[in-house]
Amino acid sequence: xxxxxxxxxxxxxxxxxxxxxxxxxxxxxxxxxxxxxxxxxxxxxxxxxxxxxxxxxxxxxxxxxxxxxxxxxxxxxxxxxxxxxxxxxxxxxxxxxxxxxxxxxxxxxxxxxxxxxxxxxxxxxxxxxxxxxxxxxxxxxxxxxxxxxxxxxxxxxxxxxxxxxxxxxxxxxxxxxxxxxxxxxxxxxxxxxxxxxxxxxxxxxxxxxxxxxxxxxxxxxxxxxxxxxxxxxxxxxxxxxxxxxxxxxxxxxxxxxxxxxxxxxxxxxxxxxxxxxxxxxxxxxxxxxxxxxxxxxxxxxxxxxxxxxxxxxxxxxxxxxxxxxxxxxxxxxxxxxxxxxxxxxxxxxxxxxxxxxxxxxxxxxxxxxxxxxxxxxxxxxxxxxxxxxxxxxxxxxxxxxxxxxxxxxxxxxxxxxxxxxxxxxxxxxxxxxxxxxxxxxxxxxxxxxxxxxxxxxxxxxxxxxxxxxxxxxxxxxxxxxxxxxxxxxxxxxxxxxxxxxxxxxxxxxxxxxxxxxxxxxxxxxxxxxxxxxxxxxxxxxxxxxxxxxxxxxxxxxxxxxxxxxxxxxxx
Length: 571
Known about the structure:
Blueprint: H1 4-17, E1 25-30, E2 33-38, H2 45-56, E3 60-64, E4 67-70, H3 71-87, E5 96-100, H4 105-117, E6 120-123, H5 130-140, E7 144-147, H6 149-154, E8 163-166, H7 173-176, H8 178-181, E9 199-204, E10 214-218, H9 219-242, E11 254-257, H10 264-277, E12 280-283, H11 289-299, E13 303-306, H12 308-316, E14 330-333, H13 340-349, E15 354-359, E16 369-371, H14 373-378, E17 385-386, E18 392-396, E19 409-414, E20 421-422, H15 426-432, E21 439-447, E22 453-458, E23 462-465, E24 468-471, H16 472-480, E25 485-495, E26 499-508, H17 516-524, E27 535-539, H18 553-570
Parallel strand pairs: 3-12, 5-6, 5-7, 6-9, 7-8, 11-12, 11-13, 13-14, 14-15, 26-27
Antiparallel strand pairs: 1-2, 3-4, 9-10, 10-20, 15-16, 16-17, 18-19, 19-21, 21-22, 23-24, 25-26
Helix pairs in contact: 1-9, 2-3, 2-4, 3-4, 9-10, 12-13
């Protein structure tokens, strides 16, 4: 049964998308059908930056240590840097320009400059080593790469086809991006004309299946993806206004940034949406729960987004009562599933705030579903309902046909926000994008009677043990429910008898002792016996992660696969 919140949100969205409404749609023809597109959205990212940075002007936009920039100052710096790319470095329309750096004000300005100049922003995973970066650079044919010292050093002695342009952190863009204008060019330099069909961004997939793929999008897709998130924010604000709970008219929303900007969660819903919202971004170069709480208190942060473990660390930190966190009313999770146990713990520890969850992928420009406030509390295992007004979501069988409601299948998303394909990889593109425009996500899930999506697992992460299917995420959630476990990952390893069996790697919370026998006993009362991992390995450092902050299961499988084989031989 639909909740009152569901009905209220639907009513607000109906008004926003009605003819003449703020978010009214217009048809865009693709895949032999009309897809809805938000009519009020600017045609390109450059136009989007100009419109909203001009509108918000003197409002503070970026706080990066001692560097503080308004929207107007950020736009001015980006326009100068764009002129330098064109006049000084000879950037041509469509040239791929990599950005390889940690989060900073100058990362954001460089991103804007590339797009305003007419280039394609290639977001290099900042955690990659030199060979991985070189592979990404050459894969998409970057002419230039704007890199900070640490990333540039990783490329030393490694062949690649790009010119390295230095980026410096912790200073004003006029200093940090001085190399962009050193050869000439400024705010008066004519820039290339760009349209909605022109190439805008390339983001790399997580690499969980091996070599990363470059997912490319045009300006229309990225802008519409941004407006899809804006629609959700405006919908919630409209509901709060109707309930008399809206913030004061002049109150500025403020977000704490602790997810990488090279990941779609940091790029689209967090950074790009902030231009339209007039939202201030407070940057954290490195995650630390105490620093995060200090910044929330000092900067009066209203919105927190991070991988699930981050908000959980704040909620369970022994000193969280020592900081005034009252301004932060939303704790969003992205980049990885949030264990169900976390939802209740966050709500109890931070009763003034609501945890929320979003679901999207690199290939959908982050767009998919959202689960808000009390509905998330009621259905903590769900990623929510498809985001209106753009998302068309289906659950498909292996042949690409819709399954009956409630049945398990592959989640597929169709919208104007979707990427165009994988760079120079037509086979992977054809496998991912169906002729009717649906992108096959590789996630297994089902829709409940109210239209809420439940992700069961990645399609490739199903363990088939003697004909029984085991969902890794279910076992991981069961392990996370143990009070002494901080991180966990479950995956399958080969077995002569069953074909494949589940194993687990875990990290105990600081000050806790958790043995494999403790976990077996605990799990025995929570999940079926065949789902309990046959082997547990305890790690003493954080589990390895991909650029999206998802646990890198491929690395863990390689690390423990050899040990597993030796154990089987000895046994």
